[in-house]
Amino acid sequence: MSTEVSNKGYLSVQIEPMRVRDLDAVLAIERVSFPTPWSRYAYLSELLENDRAYYLVARTRDRRVAGYIGMWLILDEGHITTIAVHPLQRGRGIGQQLLAAAEAIARERGASRVTLEVRVSNTAAHSLYRKIGFVDAGIRPGYYRDNNEDAIIMWKELFTGESF
Hints:
8 strands, 164 residues, Aminopeptidase, 27% helix, eight-stranded mixed β-sheet, alpha+beta
């Protein structure tokens, strides 16, 4: 699977399955995006051992990894496990394109809804998720171990014909 995605006014990126060879770039983005980044081992485990996991990268025209997303599909639900865009590429629609690609996979495999958690303080991400149809469904108190911050649980119902 490789799809070129371009939204109005946004940077055109190629969305492809994440490969082991992408991990150096993914981990570099991970380190500048999160206070408690995932390890190489965590990604290797997801890519090589988790048959419910779908991980994608967004590549710019020069083939650099600009962002990535991970999702688990369990029964009829998709769970976004991670998403990040390189700080120099943010605000260019890449996150939205990654979410659209994950939603397409979820739909193809029969999911009826998608969920994720987002830090209460991450207002930019929260705003993006609301913009594309996610709704607040609850709070996970102390979800983030690095500072005991709460997470907002968000859900999006998937219906035929709807898209990001």
